Each structure stands twice: as structure tokens, then as C-alpha cells.
Amino acid sequence: MAESTTKGNAATETAAKPAAGLKATVLGKQANADLPKALFSEPFHESLVFEAARADLASRRRGTHSSLTRGEVSMTTAKAWRQKGTGRARAGALSVPHRYGGGAAFGPKPRHYTVKVNRKARRKALRAALSIHADRGSVAVLDGSGYTDPSTKTAAAALTKWGADRPTLVVIGAEEEGVAKSFRNIEGISVALAAATGVADLVGASSLVVSEAALSELEGRAG
Q1: Whole-prediction pTM value?
Q2: What is the 3 state secondary structure string of 76-124?
Q3: CA distances (Å), origin 192, targets 66, 72, 179, 180, 198
Q4: What pLDDT was estimated at residue 85?
């Protein structure tokens, strides 16, 4: 009985440890690269990922929608007809919401949609979204130095050779303009800066390509 308990504890400890030696394909090369364990070994937290993705999408809404109230429509302020003696119901301003051309009642006005997510929760959700791609084998590492001169043909060939599922998200560093120009015109490919990549972008992509420069930036963001 004691031996069985010991084996059970050992199995639990093994399962709790993150996978060792995380590897990813180097795009366009016959080689593998090591993935940072700090980024790609986080267990999946569905509630945190949902909360962070919702906040990302909400923050992108401009919130500039606006309808005219009864005080803003272009309408005369004169009384429709005199109060008594016409045989009709009394009426005041024509700008009321129930009349044609009147203002909107409880219509939308400019507002923000931002949702606060705690910093630790946001970082944990980012790591979890990255780790899902590592678990599925849908992440590749890109050497940005090979795209000093933009080449869409080279980028498309590298993606085809890897067998990337679309949509694919390519995360690059701030100075990798050649990489952005090489990938941005390919159908089903989105290019995003590491500093602006959100959880919604990661969970919405079937495949993920991360440049070496972007990896270090993501490590700084994800903590």
C-alpha cells in the first residue's frame, strides 16, 4: 500500500512539472529552436484567457457612435398647433422621439468599452495562450535577419514548407520592417508587433510564427 502511494505521488509530481526541452521549428530551415519555458509552459486557464481576450477586443472599439437627441435634431421649436380649438390632441414640440424626424430616445452616445484586467492575470493569460500553441506544435521561430531585403516569395515558400494552418499570426520585433513587408501581403497571414500582440490575437490564430527578437519582447511583457 505504501509503495502504491509513493508511485502515485511520483506520478503526480511528474505531471505537475512543465515539459522539459520545449522545441519549435525554425521557419525556412531544417532545424529546431528552444522555446523559453517561462513563456511556453503555462497551464491553460480558460477563465483568465477569456477575460483577457474580451478586454483586448473591447479596447479596440472606438466608441464614437452617436445619435441625435430631441435637443440636437434640426427641428423647429414652435408649437405644432395651438393648444385648444382645433379638435385634435394637444401637441408641443415636433422633435419628440415618437414623431417622424424627432430625436432618438436612449440612443447611443460616445463611450469607452475598456475593461480592466489585473496585470498578473493579463500576463498569465498571455503565457497560457502562447503555451497552447507550443502544446499543439503550431508555433515556429523565425530568424528575422534573413529578411533584410523583403521577399514575399521566400516567406510564402517557408510557410508552405512548414505546413502552417491559416489564419497565421506573425509576431515581429519593432525593428523588423523587412519581415513585415515579406509576410503582410500573403492571404491568411496577419503581422503584429510583439508590443501590441494581445491574447485575442493569439487564440484567434491557428498557427503562430514568432521572430527571435519578438521572443525577448514577449518575455518582458509576460513576466
Answers
A1: 0.77
A2: CCCCCCCCCCCCCCCCCCCCCCCCCCCCCCCCCCCCCCCCCCCHHHHHH
A3: 31, 41, 11, 8, 9
A4: 94
